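Weekly structure sync, notes
Attendees: PL (lead), two postdocs, one rotation student
Agenda item 3: pending single-chain targets
PL asked that the sequence for the first pending target be pasted directly into the notes so everyone works from the same version. It is reproduced below exactly as submitted, 348 residues in total.
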Amino acid sequence: MFWTGSLESAYNSASMIKMQMQFSGINNFSPWTYPPQFDLIAALLALAPEGLAYFIFTTLTFIFYVCILRFLAREYFDIAILAIAPALFVSIKGGQNGFLTGALVGLFCLTFIRDRLRAGLPLGFMVIKPHLAVGMAVLALVNKRWGVLAMAALVVGLTSLLATVVFGYHIWPAFIGGVGESAQFLKEGRYPFYRMTSVYALCMTFDLSPGHALLIQIIAALTACCVIYYACAKGWRSEHMLGIAVLSSLFISPYIYDYDLPIFGIAIALLMPSIIANASQPEKVILLGCSWTACGWGLRHRFAHDNIWSVSGICLLVIYFMVLRIVSAAERSRTKEIPPLADEPAIQ
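Predicted structure, written out during the meeting:
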């Protein structure tokens, strides 16, 4: 649509769906609400034939993601891959951008652990899906990593300027209008909630009103941010703070899909050593079962086209609270093992 001079109409759902029908012959409700920065990627991919564009984007982002996951998971890489295997299949099958966002989040974690200013670069590039980066931004804010936040803001500013130069300033009102349409569609329940993993989607599938569902989502988001603050205030290990921040990010936005769950894999990679060391065997079985269900529940629609619940949301909540308990216990044990100062008597 960019190369034909009609990019702004992509943010109008009626025009976008009509174009999808003309291009693919499939009547699929898929509004376009990505920030103009992601339009830069889409426009470049459109220069290649459809199959080649899919291969380039999916292959390169998958390799990027797997390399980052390997660095974070280390000897637990095989287990981490196993835990999120259905989500990998979902992203590959649909050519979605879950590998790209997952790799950016993982790269942020790698550089943040090493106390580097460059952590602001992947955080800034998460402007392509900013609602998935809130947990990391909160973590940087609580830790007073002003340089990281400034770097992220600079990346957002420069990429916004580039998008404005390439697409024209009219792209921004169109984008804002598309986001407004998306919010209305979410309220009307037009999105496939069985593929969504948010607390909002879970509430909507239990027939709560949009207002009540949104209120519960806001409470969940605030609670997730408080958990991140608690982990930082208690001085948790960097891997634990980052893992919990990434995991908490999954509960902040009402708009999150199963193909976004490679980010969940980053959290698992960071927290896996503590889970393996401190979880009981039944807990490990429950965590793996919930992980597979959360990552792969949307695939059920291939075999059953009924209006099914957002079971993924339930499973992620179970994982969240179980992991919080396990990591908290590990941190308490670590604190008890810290020896007293030389001039202080040991506590018997």
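Discussion points:
- Residues 33-54+75-171+188-329 form one domain.
- The two ends are 71 Å apart (CA to CA).
Action: rotation student to compare against the earlier draft before next sync.
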